[in-house]
Amino acid sequence: MKVRIKFSKYGVVKFIGHLDVVRYFQKANRRAGIDVAYSQGFNPHQIMSFAAPLGVGLTSDGEYVDVDFNIVESEEAIVNSLNAVMNEGFAVTEAKILKEPLPNQKRETAMSLVAAADYLVSLKDGYELKTENGQILEKNDFNQLFAKFIDQSQIVINKKTKKSEKEMDIRPYIFHCGITEEDFIKSGEDLKVTNTVQGLKHADTYANGIRVFLCLATGSVINIKPELVMEAFCEKYGIKFETFAFQYHRMETYANVADHGKTIEEMILAVQQKESYALKLDSLSKVGIK
Asked: Which alpha helices (DSSP H) does the chain contain, by range?
């Protein structure tokens, strides 16, 4: 029986990498006494699949992992059992039993479903945004400049990989954005986004008030990190980009429930042509649930 678990990652554990998070959940399952299913063979391991690995330094209220169980007492029991053995910085918020696939049908994992994610990007206190002409951006200045930045038809960056570096237009992969929560919700209406701006419980807040909400393409095919967007913004206006100046918080992770079969290219084209019916984002906690 497969269960989709939603959890938060915050505080000092934001500096723990993904592989350590995997090991942590394996140990938490054992400590909680949950009957987890193991793979067969010479090196058996717990059967689990994380949706979209979170980068080091990021916090989140929208993380997901699919776990196979031999026996499940109840969804509530899983949440309570895991939270009882979790350290501060991890919190399980939901557990949903998934539907069994039809005969000869392959089960879709959380990782294969991921199409987008919401982020809150905040400027940390102690940092400032100074343009090439010496102007230090205040909240209203940033809001106006970012609105101008996102209104471009193209945002071309040099995207680096382990083997190469190439130019890439990331504007189509910024599905929608907003300076305020209200703006963000309104901009997402065309995408039929549900449950937007709910994952802020563990987001860090800063006195300067400079922040922006982003919904970005996420997944194994196209994965746009919020750091790329902010670096492109800084480069555009001659602002020195400091790696640790911004705090990134993932609010939610989505699947495209309009049509799972669409490629990322078809999804982007649908957004560009305002075909909202072709890209409907729903949180992973609502997809494939029993």
From this structure: 18-32, 75-85, 110-113, 139-150, 181-187, 226-236, 264-272
Q: Categorize the per-residue pLDDT at 268 as very low, low, confident or very high, splitting at 50, 70 and 90.
A: low
Shared-domain flag, residues 102 and 233: no
Res. 185 pLDDT band, cuts 50 70 90: confident
Stretch (H or E) spanning 282: strand 281-283
pLDDT band at 220 (very low <50, low <70, confident <90, very high): confident
DSSP letter at 286 equals: G
**Alpha-carbon distance values, 136 to 139, 142, 244 (Å):** 10, 9, 18
* Dist CA 172 CA 270 (whole Å): 10
Question: Do 86 and 126 belong to one domain?
Answer: no
The count of structural domains within the chain is: 2
Residue 182 CA, distance from chain mean position: 20
Give residue 159's domain range: 114-283
* CATH assignment at residue 43: 3.30.70.580
Q: What is the pTM of this model?
A: 0.89
According to the model, what pLDDT value does residue 229 have? 96
- Within this chain, do residues 133 and 269 fall inside the same structural domain, yes or no? yes
Angle (CA) 164-166-169 rounded to 5° is 150
